[in-house]
Amino acid sequence: MTDLDGAQFRELCGRFATGVVIVTALDPDQSPAGMTANSFASVSLDPPLISFNVDRASDFHRAIATAGVFAVNVLGAGQEALSRRFAKTPGPERFEGVGFRRTDTGRIHLAGAIATLDCETFERFPVGDHTVVIGRVVGGEAHDGRPLLYFRGGYRNLA
Fold first, then answer.
1. Assigned domain for 13 exists
2. Is the pTM of this model over 0.85?
3. What are the tens digits of pLDDT across the range 93-133?
4. In a domain, 34, yes or no
5. Does any domain span residue 100?
6. Model confidence over 123-151: pLDDT tens digits?
7. 87 lies in some domain
8. What whole-number distance in Å separates Cα of residue 122 and Cα of residue 74?
9. Cα separation of 93 and 29, whole Å?
């Protein structure tokens, strides 16, 4: 069997509209770390589990590989610039000028997110060039607002 060309694979998967999240955690030095992801999915209701994928070559991989807790911040329609920032800006500079609060449990909640899921690391699996992270949801917050979507290589909003 021949592997599918990477560009074609990306085009095919790009036909699936996804929400956009920023996963945040503290790195081993206790500095805020985060990354944009559209690979977020619910996995199980009992126990409540979610998953996302992180490239092992990314700087966020170091943080999530050691983090016992993390937060998934679901972005709202007006947060495209924040999504781009966490996707392209290197390391700690991502948080410069960004509104966030650190919870007493060490999780980072971004201002303006339409939902934040507080998670404990449940499992990690190396798969291909990524690590699949499974988190157990232990709490969170929901706020009104429309989601930021990603479709065919670009950001979209609900009409």
1. no
2. yes
3. 899 999 999 999 999 999 999 999 999 999 999 999 999 99
4. yes
5. yes
6. 999 999 999 999 999 999 999 999 999 98
7. yes
8. 20
9. 15
Distance from chain centroid for Cα 159: 24
Long-range pairs of 105-111 with CB within 8 A, sequence gap ≥ 24: 105/69, 106/26, 106/69, 107/24, 107/25, 107/69, 107/70, 107/71, 108/24, 108/25, 108/26, 108/32, 108/34, 108/71, 109/24, 109/71, 109/73, 109/141, 110/22, 110/24, 110/34, 110/73, 110/82
Domain that holds residue 89: 18-152
The CATH number of the domain where 70 resides is what? 2.30.110.10
**Partners of 72 in the beta sheet?**
23, 117
Name the domain count of the chain: 1
